[in-house]
From TrEMBL:
<dbReference type="InterPro" id="IPR002403">
    <property type="entry name" value="Cyt_P450_E_grp-IV"/>
</dbReference>
<dbReference type="InterPro" id="IPR001128">
    <property type="entry name" value="Cyt_P450"/>
</dbReference>
<feature type="region of interest" description="Disordered">
    <location>
        <begin position="438"/>
        <end position="463"/>
    </location>
</feature>
<dbReference type="InterPro" id="IPR017972">
    <property type="entry name" value="Cyt_P450_CS"/>
</dbReference>
<comment type="similarity">
    <text>Belongs to the cytochrome P450 family.</text>
</comment>
<keyword id="KW-0479">Metal-binding</keyword>
<keyword id="KW-0560">Oxidoreductase</keyword>
<dbReference type="InterPro" id="IPR050196">
    <property type="entry name" value="Cytochrome_P450_Monoox"/>
</dbReference>
<dbReference type="Pfam" id="PF00067">
    <property type="entry name" value="p450"/>
</dbReference>
<keyword id="KW-0503">Monooxygenase</keyword>
<keyword id="KW-0408">Iron</keyword>
<dbReference type="InterPro" id="IPR036396">
    <property type="entry name" value="Cyt_P450_sf"/>
</dbReference>
<feature type="compositionally biased region" description="Polar residues">
    <location>
        <begin position="450"/>
        <end position="463"/>
    </location>
</feature>
<protein>
    <submittedName>
        <fullName>Cytochrome P450</fullName>
    </submittedName>
</protein>
<keyword id="KW-0349">Heme</keyword>
Length: 463
């Protein structure tokens, strides 16, 4: 298949003066991005005065993600993120990527994921410990605390206090959500004394100070089962031990990548499940058979295939990392269009994960489309929630494990129902795809769900 000529190109209609298509992205990103494949396989849009090319066909998307030399991490989103977070694994250009990937890969091997599973179990138990029938909570903030606490303890080990975790959580939340301003609004607005800009500046100062203190403490008293302990023994590209700045950058990378996205995925997951009684019932049947009312453990994961399919389907329908950018490093031709060096490419999983010619009834929540016999028939590049190629998210299995354990543990004892005031429309000016408002009400699935392990106890008494 010739990527340069065998596909179609189009210019998206509806661009507004000065702002281009940015208002459409802010108002309803799912609808706008999902509509682009109806115009062509590669579609040109405008973000302010700048053109951006959007791949809308699985093969083009895959090509751009796999050829990460030509389509390097760049554009306004990454430029600003590097200013805030540094050139860590997820943000560095191609020239620095290979060394960092090799240095960090051991942290995400099978043995370490199993060890992180124990941390996840503890944090999930802490999240649900206070739940009682009728309890209601804001979904995303609760799941954000869960994922941030898990990530902090994975990075810093048992030495990470609740106070330190809270300080970092609050600032990282402001920083990551504010990055969309740099992508969607004209550059001139970033110099204005807007509240969002002031919050970004203050959050950055708090965040860097907190992270520097944690890294310094870890150098004095390292905790063995932690990412930083691994990095303290690693070498930089110059063959020397990592500096404190480099340690901080890598810690920041995993914290920023492993909090908002996992929390958003869990938020959408319970919203989608609440709208599909069949999927809810199948999920509950599986966790009842495997868990008998107890929390899920890492060792249970092979027995929870439907639960994992629920996670995957939620990521297909509502990918938290809904947009990221690339910048071309060489002249290249895609779908008959010549992209000069420095061209901006806007990549979104939504453009291919909602195509009706790839996924039958794409707006239907259907976890069984991920049964092996169905998933194997999908074209390459049709699922990109974790990106693809050499720069695929290094923590993809970490995130899948955390989401699966959380979903299984909750479903084994509770049913979470969105409150009537829930607003499922995507939040504006957010780098992570989120519903605008979502409160969940807790309903026990079993009469004695207020006490841990009671379903298992009841079952044993019946025997």
């Amino acid at each position: 298949m010739d990527i340069s000529t065998e596909f179609t190109h189009a210019i998206a209609p509806g661009a507004l003066p000065v702002l281009g298509h940015a208002p459409h992205l802010m108002r309803d990103p799912l609808k706008f991005l999902g509509s682009l494949s109806g115009h062509g396989d590669l579609v040109t849009i405008r973000l302010g005065p700048r053109r951006a090319y959007v791949p809308c066909h699985p093969e083009i998307l895959r090509h751009m993600l796999v050829d990460y030399r030509t389509f390097d991490k760049g554009g306004p989103l990454y430029e600003r993120a590097r200013e805030v977070f540094g050139e860590s694994l997820g943000l560095c250009p191609h020239a620095r990527h290979r060394h960092q990937r090799r240095m960090l890969q051991p942290a995400f091997g099978a043995d370490n994921i199993a060890a992180y599973g124990a941390i996840m179990e503890q944090q999930i138990t802490a999240l649900t410990a206070s739940w009682r029938g009728g309890h209601a909570f804001e979904a995303f903030p609760a799941f954000f605390r869960l994922s941030a606490n898990t990530a902090m303890r994975m990075i810093f080990g048992a030495g990470c206090t609740d106070e330190a975790a809270t300080a970092v959580q609050q600032s990282i939340a402001t920083l990551t959500r504010g990055l969309a301003v740099d992508l969607l609004l004209p550059k001139v607005t970033q110099r204005l004394p807007l509240p969002v800009i002031r919050r970004q500046t203050k959050a950055r100062e708090t965040f860097l100070t907190s992270m520097d203190r944690l890294v310094a403490e870890h150098r004095v008293r390292p905790h063995p089962a932690s990412l930083l302990a691994l990095l303290l023994d690693a070498q930089g590209e110059d063959g020397r031990p990592l500096t404190s700045d480099q340690l901080r950058e890598q810690a920041i990378a995993f914290l920023s990548a492993g909090t908002d996205t996992t929390a958003a995925a869990l938020t959408w997951m319970f919203l989608l499940l609440a709208g599909n009684a069949t999927a809810q019932r199948q999920l509950e049947d599986e966790v009842d058979r495997v868990l008998h009312g107890r929390p899920a453990r890492f060792a249970d994961l092979p027995e929870l295939p439907y639960t994992r399919r629920v996670v995957t389907e939620a990521l297909r329908m509502r990918p938290p990392g809904w947009v990221f950018t690339r910048a071309t490093t060489a002249r290249t031709t895609i779908a008959g269009q010549v992209l000069e060096p420095g061209s901006l490419v806007l990549i979104s999983p939504c453009t291919v994960q909602h195509r009706p010619d790839v996924y039958a009834q794409p707006e239907e929540f259907s976890p069984d489309r991920w049964l092996p016999e169905h998933a194997s028939a999908l074209p390459r590049g049709s699922f990109a929630a974790f990106s693809n190629g050499g720069r695929k998210c290094i923590g993809d299995e970490f995130a899948m494990t955390e989401a699966t354990l959380t979903l299984a543990t909750v479903a084994s004892r509770w049913r979470l129902t969105p409150e009537p005031q829930t607003d499922p429309r995507p939040k504006t000016l957010a780098t992570t795809l989120l519903p605008r408002r979502m409160r969940l009400r807790v309903t026990p699935r079993h009469e004695s769900s207020t006490e841990p392990g009671t379903l298992a106890d009841t079952n044993s008494k019946r025997k």
